[in-house]
């Protein structure tokens, strides 16, 4: 029986799963760190959408997607890494002669640090509380900067109304088969784009865009009501009403 010889040419075309896993973990760690830093520095979603905030040409929503996707990918990849390297991992943790766990002090210290920061995150202990406070100050910084730059940034209570009731349309408004009979406030207006709000309320997209354009608001179908609010100076709720063809209430 002849022994199979692995030539350099054969190795060149062979796929090494261990190498792939290791390189993937390195790349994903870098992306997780980068996205974590980006989200730490980012303003709140309300401000980010209003200002169309970006960091390195990516929006906050895109950074969130990267952070979430690669965090989830870590589960199967890390499980595969442990499966493929189970023996080396055990050899690292155990003493070869006594088969007892080595590095007991290091293991206990690592567990203590992990537990401390986990509980600190839950109960807002120092220094975690200071770290989170700095993140809040970054959000305030971006909000103030946006207002200084001329963006109309609505208050949190306006963007995310607490009520879950529905507001009936104005009875004096002429009947229009494209209008919905109610305006849903089950979730914040900031989650809607012009198109999604129109579709949910059974308004033709072109009709919605025309109603906005008639008031001098040039909108795009995929533009969020928050971003449009920042450009137009109208509240998200006012933009929602315009799309539905409802007259805006005037202060008495």
TrEMBL record:
Keyword set includes Transmembrane: yes
Transmembrane segments: 20-42, 65-86, 107-125
InterPro entries, per database record: DUF4405 (IPR025517)
Presence of keyword Signal: no
Taxonomic superkingdom: Bacteria
A Pfam family the protein falls into: DUF4405
Signal peptide: none
Domain Flavinylation-associated cytochrome: start-end pairs: 20-86
Biased composition (Low complexity): 162-178
Keywords from the UniProt entry: Membrane, Transmembrane, Transmembrane helix
Record region (Disordered): 162-182
Name this protein carries in UniProt: Flavinylation-associated cytochrome domain-containing protein
UniProt source species: Meiothermus hypogaeus NBRC 106114
């Amino acid at each position: 029986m002849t022994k199979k010889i692995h030539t350099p040419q054969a190795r060149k075309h062979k796929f090494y799963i261990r190498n792939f896993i290791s390189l993937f973990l390195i790349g994903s760690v870098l992306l997780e760190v980068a996205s974590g830093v980006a989200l730490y520095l980012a303003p709140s979603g309300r401000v980010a959408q209003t200002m169309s905030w970006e960091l390195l040409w990516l929006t906050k929503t895109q950074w969130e997607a990267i952070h979430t996707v690669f965090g989830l990918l870590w589960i199967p990849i890390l499980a595969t890494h442990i499966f493929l390297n189970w023996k080396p991992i055990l050899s690292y943790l155990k003493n070869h002669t006594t088969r007892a766990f080595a590095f007991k002090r290091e293991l206990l210290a690592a567990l203590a640090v992990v537990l401390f920061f986990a509980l600190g995150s839950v109960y807002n202990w120092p220094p975690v509380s200071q770290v989170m406070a700095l993140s809040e100050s970054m959000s305030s910084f971006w909000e103030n900067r946006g207002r200084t730059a001329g963006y109309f940034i609505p208050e949190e209570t306006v963007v995310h109304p607490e009520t879950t009731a529905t507001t009936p349309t104005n009875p004096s408004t002429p009947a229009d088969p494209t209008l919905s009979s109610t305006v849903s406030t089950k979730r914040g207006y900031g989650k809607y784009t012009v198109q999604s709000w129109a579709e949910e309320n059974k308004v033709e997209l072109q009709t919605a865009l025309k109603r906005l354009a008639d008031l001098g608001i040039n909108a795009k179908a995929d533009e969020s009501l928050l971003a449009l609010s920042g450009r137009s100076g109208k509240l998200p709720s006012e933009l929602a009403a315009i799309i539905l063809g409802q007259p805006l209430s005037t202060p008495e």
